[in-house]
Each structure stands twice: as structure tokens, then as C-alpha cells.
Design brief:
mainly alpha
């Protein structure tokens, strides 16, 4: 799995369950003033109703993507 970023296997179910495309979630994450992984996870759970696994997958993938830039 070296070629794929962590968490992306969850993306189809995230889009289906929460009704927003992954690009929109990434935009929300990147526009947040929060920067720490668990702060962002807690924020997605509290403000947007995501489950822990889905929030964690989105954050991990987005932060890894940004780090790779």
C-alpha cells in the first residue's frame, strides 16, 4: 500500500454517509484554524457529526497529502 495515502479506503462510505464529497471535507479541514491531528478529529466529530474512524481517516489523509507537497 505504499502508493496510497492512509485512510482513502473509507472515502466512499464517508461520502455516502455524510453527503459531502471528500474534496469538500478536505477544504473544511484545511480552512480550520486547528492544526493538531486529534484537535481536528474532535472538531469533525463535534461540529459535523462524523464518527471517530471517518474523522481520523479524513484528517490522516489530508495531513499526509499536505506534508507530501
Amino acid at each position: 500500500m505504499a502508493g496510497s495515502l492512509q485512510g482513502s479506503a473509507y472515502f466512499p462510505s464517508i461520502e455516502e454517509k455524510y453527503g459531502r464529497p471528500i474534496a469538500e471535507w478536505k477544504g473544511l479541514i484545511r480552512s480550520s484554524p486547528l492544526t493538531k491531528h486529534m484537535e481536528l478529529v474532535s472538531w469533525l466529530k463535534a461540529e459535523h457529526g462524523l464518527g471517530h474512524g471517518h474523522a481520523n481517516a479524513l484528517i490522516a489523509h489530508t495531513l499526509a497529502e499536505d506534508k507530501a507537497k
